[in-house]
Design a protein that fits this description.
Blueprint lengths: L7 H9 L11 E3 H10 L10 H9 L5 E3 H15 L3 H9 L15 H5 L4 H4 L2
Antiparallel strand pairs: 1-2
């Protein structure tokens, strides 16, 4: 029994319903779900592409959720702005597995600040 091959549309549907499959239809995606998907695919690496970058691009739509065509525009603009190959990005998003198949670590910056010491405290 073979599995169906993933498409960008099927992945969009799955990640749009992430963590709320009872209330979400999969027709629109939130920034958080899109970021989670891009982190699972290895697009967001907190160096070249950050959650700030995606937030700025997503907010151009002035909505909390966008549909598939708007999301494709979002990806296209993000790739152009960050100098990424759009075809490769879409391939990574298509082939990254279903939501939750691979562990995704969303960084918690609080841990950095919880044990932060100023340079004056470190000297002498």
């Amino acid at each position: 029994m073979g599995e169906e091959e993933a498409t960008i549309e099927s992945q969009f549907f799955e990640f749009a319903k992430l963590f709320d499959s009872k209330n979400r239809t999969g027709e629109t995606i939130t920034l958080w779900n899109s970021d989670y998907w891009m982190r699972q695919a290895g697009i967001i690496d907190d160096r070249k592409v950050t959650m700030t970058d995606t937030g700025i691009m997503f907010n151009k739509f002035s909505k909390s959720e966008i549909d598939f065509n708007e999301w494709l525009t979002f990806i296209s603009e993000l790739c152009a702005r960050k100098g990424l190959c759009e075809e490769k990005v879409l391939e990574q998003l298509t082939n990254c597995g279903i939501p939750g198949q691979y562990p995704v670590e969303v960084p918690q910056y609080r841990s950095f600040f919880s044990d932060y010491k100023s340079k004056h405290a470190l000297v002498g």
